[in-house]
């Protein structure tokens, strides 16, 4: 419980900081709220005046005129009060939306600067839930906090202060009910927090499952596992349903019913006060003041009820805020200085050790790659091929050792500067749901002729015929694997990178397309440093150096002819592949 309070207080303090950034609109909203409260106080006073000063005697023609005038004033007050409440809510809503937009922007910016290791451990669905669902809940919280709770609190306090000055004893007697209101408030909030926290967890789980199922629907259907996956989904869905039912019952019984009883007791207290005064004549009571006291008391407890119920919704949003600020508190990639680096220089791996978790994947690896040369890495799955590329791209940092380009440690280089002259083509080429043009240019200002030239160079004539402004469906589902890969190669070629990285870029395509792409690779790697992770050894026969990896260490190195003459591991792999093909 203590930890929960610490986390909650920390979130509340951060929410205050965000709220203060929009204080202009909040201030205007509060001004309208105070003016509305003044009118809500004034209205019952007019009715009380009519009852006490006009209805107690024989009503004359002039009295009717006075009543009509006062009732018109009351109507104007009633209408103005509604308008002021509306304007107050509008400005509070503007503040809430601005705050939520600011938080959402900060969350997205934070996520985009997380180290890759963060995404290794958290499903994409859960991250998306925090960026969208949780920030929307936060917006709802600010809307409730300002639009409903602030207005209700200001009105309740204003009415009670007025009641205190008009009927002091009655106002003091109502304080007897404060402990009961506090118990209801505290109990309701604590239980709501427990339920909403569980709902939040299950909702994140279900978002992650939906994301996973949609992306793997082909596998699910191939193995006829629709029912199995449905049952897993339904288990989580039922848990959310059950908790929501409990939450609804809590709101019904703890909120409305309990406060109905308190309000009933408050009216009895007011009636007792006026009844005793009327019988004993110890203090003066009037019908008008009775009306005003009952009106104020009813409104006070109606607004207290609104505050309690809305605070329950805020507990839900606070658990979202905890999620958001937990994410914002995570360490981002360290912002590095603008040190210059020249990717035309030699690259050297010095005594590299690296582990994703406990056991080292790379062990004491040392390697020098001369500028403008091509180097290929081969080895069994888990030998460390892709890990070397991830280290070079500075997605991860070595546990021990350094990677230097031109004698400069890349760990001290701004990542944007490091990667701006690099291009990567992966085994599974990812395409955005956009045009072919946008997937190649990626927001950079390349002309149509430059894009067409890039496609021609890598052998993408068929794609040019399709039209570079034609739409690509999600993840390139309307393209063949070869076409997707050709677009990825064009994306790399058009940037004229100094360092090219090909991560098993031809392993998922047919032999005919591989030959087209291989010609493109030969053009791409000309006069630039090229790192290749190879699956088909026939594609790397002409690279300058081949590194054979085994359990994170260099087993053999040399060009194709040198390795074939050694009769070692590489030769066995090559001959086996030739035999299989």
UniProtKB/TrEMBL annotation:
Gene3D superfamilies: ABC transporter type 1, transmembrane domain, P-loop containing nucleotide triphosphate hydrolases. PROSITE patterns: ABC_TM1F (PS50929), ABC_TRANSPORTER_1 (PS00211), ABC_TRANSPORTER_2 (PS50893). It is a multi-pass membrane protein. Residues 347-576 form the ABC transporter domain. GO terms for molecular function: ABC-type transporter activity; ATP binding; ATP hydrolysis activity; ATPase-coupled lipid transmembrane transporter activity. One of its GO terms (cellular component) is plasma membrane. It is found in: Cell membrane. Pfam families: ABC_membrane (PF00664), ABC_tran (PF00005). The keyword Transmembrane applies. The chain crosses the membrane at residues 25-51, 66-85, 144-163, 169-189, 261-283. Keywords: ATP-binding, Membrane, Nucleotide-binding, Transmembrane, Transmembrane helix. Residues 27-316 form the ABC transmembrane type-1 domain. The keyword ATP-binding applies. This is ABC transporter ATP-binding protein.
